[in-house]
Amino acid sequence: MDRKFKLGIGAGIAALAVAGGGYFCLIAGKDTPEYALQTVEKAVENHNKADFYKVVNLESILDESYSSIVEGVTDVDKTMTEDARDAIKNFTEMLREPLLLSLKAAIDSYIENGEFNKEENASVKTLVERTGFDRFEYRGVDSVEINPRNSNEATAKVRIYQPELAQEFVFNIILRRNINDEWQIVQLQNFSDFINSLNQIRRVQLDKYLEQSAEINARHDAIINDSDQKNLEIMAEGSLGQDKTRADLKTLMLEVVKKDWEARKQELFSLYVPLGAKTLHNLRMKICDLEIGYAEDYAQWMDDKKAATAKSAEDKKRMARTLKDEENILVRRISNKELQQ
């Protein structure tokens, strides 16, 4: 098995259960929690679902983790209103059983085939991505200790590295003896702490994106405002019936307006876009495309003088204005300005 555990949908939960098997290979007896960890690793390597479920109580793990998964999904999308966030939480609670079944089916597929059917498990894929389990590296097992107050319970401390966190995180994996006196993995004890840490990092990343993109937009807005003023000056000095006026406007649109929107789009495109800003960023890309299209149509209108070309330019400009209004709403919501009023 790849020790980096570069994982797809649902594999995070399975991989945490797997952690440490090889480490304890030489010292684990069958009646030890270490043996359970070792068994999970071999089961996943050999695609043996039966052995996997002998030592992993997946229903318990998923049931305990479900609330944190939902919290991670709703908290990462900063474009949601609080009402929408609460509505989604209520809705996902209603769908608790079918979603847990879908997660289990996804993990079954991973164990049996080593991969997931992304089309069939698209919703589960989104859940896992937003909780940060779509990619992380297993770094080792620090310890496995029997609970001094309960000899039927043990805790395995498993270190992982998640790129967004940019540091290691230690999971507490709880194991318990079942009625057959066998050790099973039953819980990721501090899963909610992982989600909280991840969301705090994402908040920092989101604020950074907002700051950087605001600087880009402000700088380019100044150029576009100057070009609007230049447009008025050209019109004041002549008329659309004059070739020179139309030529000057065409040059302004192609050499200043279009090029500046293209440059803005490239600068925005080069930014790191956190999950919470995806909707906003995609909207901004669409605005850039519309403004570029507007400049092209306007320049063409200066040549062909067709009403249809002028209408096409105006339609793009109107749509861009509408999207800019939506952009402003999203920026206020994401930056929490609405909450501060």
Keywords:
elongated; 4 strands; single chain; 341 residues; disordered N terminus; 12% strand; 12 helices; alpha+beta
Written account of the structure:
- This protein is of the alpha+beta class and 341 residues long.
- It is 65% helix and 12% strand.
- It is built from 12 helices and 4 strands, in the order H-H-H-H-H-H-H-E-E-E-E-H-H-H-H-H.
- It has a 4-stranded antiparallel sheet with strand order 1-2-3-4.
Give a quick summary of the entry.
It is built from twelve helices and four strands. It has helices at 11-18, 33-45, 49-55, 58-76, 82-94, 96-113, 122-130, 191-237, 243-269, 278-304, 307-334, 337-340; strands at 137-147, 150-162, 167-177, 183-188. Strand 3 (167-177) and strand 4 form a beta hairpin.
Number of H- or I-type helical stretches? 12
Which percent range describes the beta-strand content?
5-15%
Spatially, the strands of the biggest sheet line up as 1-2-3-4
Determine Rg (CA atoms, Å).
28 Å
Query: What is the terminal separation in angstroms?
Result: 52 Å
Biggest sheet layout: 4 strands, antiparallel
Low-confidence stretches: 1-11, 18-27, 337-341
Outline type: elongated
Number of strands: 4
